[in-house]
Each structure stands twice: as C-alpha cells, then as structure tokens.
Amino acid sequence: MAPPLVLDEDQALELLAYLVTAARTQVDEAAEYGPMRLLTAAGRLAAMIRPRASEGLQDVLAGPLGSVPPTAVPRTGREAYVARLDGICRELAEHLSIRFAPGCRTTVTPG
Amino acid sequence: MNPVLRAIRTRRVVRTMSDQPVAREQIEAVLDAGRYAPSAGNRHLHRFVATSDPAILRVLRMVSPGMIQRPAAAVTICIDQPLAVEYGFARTSPGLYVDVGTIAATMLLAAHGIGLGAGPVSSFSRAAVGVVLRLPEGWSPELVVCLGHPATEQPPPMGRRPSLSWRDLTRWVVRGPADEEQRADHDREA
C-alpha cells in the first residue's frame, strides 16, 4: 500500500522557498543560525504534515521536535542544546527503525 | 517615568502575532514616524514599501527565513541606490545602513506607542523580496518591520545572556587627573 500523501503542493512550495532563501541568507549570517534555520524548516514541515500523518508519526511530530523554540541557537547552553537535538534524533531514529526495519535486533557474533 | 523612556524600556520584539488585522491608519502612523527618523544630511534616500495583503505577506514570509511571526502588515525599508549614488554615496557607505537602523528603531517605537507589536527582520533573500514586492529598479530591500497584534505567548528571546546595564556598555572619556574611583577601575582592569 502506498504511503499516505501528507503534503500538498502549496505547502511543499512554501518549504522549498524557505530552504532556498535560507541557503542564501545563511551565507551572510552567523554560523549559529544554521541549525536554527534547519530546525525551523523541520518544525514547519512537521506542522504541515501532522494533520494527515499516520498515528505513529503524529506522536513523533507532537514530541520534542515541536517544542524547540524558533529562536533557539547554540550560543549559550550549548550542551543542553546538543542534548536536546540528540534526543530528537534518537526519537526519529526509533520511529524510522520501527517503520522501515521492523524487528531489527542485535545478535551475538557466532564464534 | 518619562513616557518616551518608558516606551523605550517596554518595547519588545514581537515574534508571535494574532490574526487580528492592523488598521490602515496604524500602518500610516508607523510610516509617518519613519519619515521623522534621523536621516544623514536630511537627504531621505530611503523608501518604504508597505503591505497588509495576506497573500503578499504569505509570499514575503516564504522568502524571509528570519520572519518567524505571521505579520498582519509589513513595512520594508529600502535604499534608493540610484538616488544615493546621485548624492555621492558609495553603495557600501555605512551611513546608508545606519539610517536603515534609525528608521527601523523609530518605526518599532512608533508601533509600540500605538499599541501594536513589531519585529524587525533582516534575514531574507534580497533578490526574492525585490520580486515579491515589485520593487523599482535600484531599490534594495534592507529590513522588514513586521506589524501586528502580539499573541499572548511569545517564544523566548534569542540567546539569553546576562542582563547588561548601560554601565556595562559604556566608557567615559574625561580629562584631568584620575580620581580614586577611576584609578581603582584602572587597577582592576590592569
């Protein structure tokens, strides 16, 4: 079964414009704005796809990803910032594993 | 407290705005304040482009990564580059950009003064904004002042840092022998 379509053309175009123009502005901006712009794009994408997303994905989108303030930069509290991003990455990876590689497990290497 | 000083102290950058529209008269009041901002040589080499059209604002936001808020109106401060050249300014002359700042500061205060929320945005594609706003040839968009009614909840300010007083930011230049306090400052710094 084909996965559900969760993004319409207008939304995709809006995100495309954001990403392209952010690439341009980032040339002149402080490096710390880089992760902020990417997270803003991720946050907007999450907000766009959430209403039509499947149940499991909706849970992920409603999690920490959606709670990152749009003004957060790794200027002060860098460790906490990194820890928060790592947490989001882990949660996403967990969802990806369940969705695309169910039953994934480790085994002991045969001796 | 003096009402102007109170306005300066209480103004905040507004990054979340409600859907409530901004009245045309309010936008005009902000534009009029911008016209009264200090301008190098009183030359007025800047031009303003205003819109409250939701569709145009939507597209403007799409090409402005720094526009976190969804404004009900926006005023874009542009430099009329051909006019600036005519006056003898180089394109990179700092004075032109200082004036953008003073205009923006004046507009932000004016908006605050009439009960609007406002936020400056400088992170946008100049090329794209020029197209979206149909700017005349030679007008370079430098800063967008977003206008709207503040939403109840605002995101935290960027990069929290210790609160600085004017004393932290200021050095006095004086003449004559250093008094005890200055000597102590000097010794501490040494």
From TrEMBL, chain A:
InterPro entries: DUF6092 (IPR046074). This is Uncharacterized protein. It comes from Pseudonocardia bannensis. It comes from the Bacteria.
